[in-house]
Write a structure and sequence with these properties.
Blueprint (H helix, E strand, L loop, with lengths): L1 H19 L3 E5 L3 E5 L8 E6 L3 E7 L3 E5 L5 E5 L3 E2 L3 E4 L4 E4 L8 E5 L4 E9 L2 E5 L5 E5 L3 E2 L2
Antiparallel strand pairs: 1-4, 1-7, 2-3, 4-5, 5-6, 8-11, 8-14, 9-10, 11-12, 12-13
């Protein structure tokens, strides 16, 4: 009996990295998106998210999507208010923007908490290539960002 459980454990262990990487993020596509406590416009309006704000998709019911924001709040939003565009959010303090993906690279700017950035390239070696709405493009340490 122990052998089938061992095989199950091995299969589950092999699949776990795939589950971990299956996290989906989207961004708010409209200037102001209302989020609700239930998947219905008749539900209680909990707050408003601004355009570009990244959210993690947890449940997709088609017209309604349950999302998590950077503070960990769980809410529902109409699917039509989300874009596939990937954005990230500076989650703490000030984040340095570097010319290249290395700590010794030239500093080209600093970003305050809650600044939304376009994600140009996914994380590589702990760095994310981002673009600010003003055009500044560079690399930020992934540990300073939320939304990927």
């Amino acid at each position: 009996m122990a052998q089938p459980l061992t095989k199950l454990f091995v299969v589950v262990s092999m699949l776990m990295p795939a589950w971990a990487s299956a996290v989906e993020f989207r961004s708010i596509s409209v200037p102001k998106a209302v989020v609700y406590d239930t998947p219905s416009a008749a539900g209680k309006k909990t707050f408003i998210l601004g355009q570009g704000y990244p959210v993690e998709v947890l449940v997709n019911l088609g017209d309604w999507i349950k999302v998590r924001d950077a503070q960990g709040s769980l809410n529902w939003i109409e699917a039509k208010q989300l874009a596939a565009k990937r954005t990230v959010l500076v989650k703490s303090g000030q984040a340095d923007v570097r010319q290249a993906a290395e700590a010794g690279s030239a500093l080209i700017g600093k970003l305050d908490k809650d600044v939304v950035l376009d994600m140009v390239e996914p994380p590589v070696n702990g760095w994310v290539k981002v673009k600010h709405r003003d055009g500044m493009t560079g690399y930020v340490l992934a540990s300073f960002l939320w939304g990927f």
